[in-house]
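Protocol step 4 of 5: obtain the predicted structure for the target chain.
Materials: sequence only (see below). No template structures provided, no constraints applied. The aim of this step is simply to have a reference model before the mutagenesis design in step 5. Sequence pasted as it appears in the construct record:
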Amino acid sequence: MINKYMKIGILNSDMDEVTKDLQDILNLHFEEHESSYWGDYHVANISEKEKIRLVYNYVDEDWQEEDYKEFLLLLELNRLEEPEKIMKLLCERLTYLKPLYMQEVEARVSTKKYIYQNGGFILVDEY
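Step 4 output (structure tokens):
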């Protein structure tokens, strides 16, 4: 089974506003959480394994995504059935969202990393 993990950059720094927008579009409830690693974050648990998480990119003087410092918030689509469809829906409705990359992980077989460029995902690494 292949699991997909997608990362989307957010140009809006107001986590509560972004959460409300996501809840309205996806008709999902996001819960507030706090951890020593992720800091404050919001998560929607769709199923036991499917999650959408909204996190700060800069936590405790460290960047989660150093190559994407222009994004103060990050949206993670983790192990969703069809993350590309959700990404497309969200990016069409919320202009402050920008797709960054996706990883496909097949346990004990391979990991593929794709970056989002010119309207599509391009394979950049496989191991």
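Step 4 remarks: The first strand starts at residue 2 and ends at 10. Strands lie at 2-10, 31-35, 39-45, 51-56, 58-59, 62-63, 73-78, 97-106, 110-117, 120-126.
Proceed to step 5.
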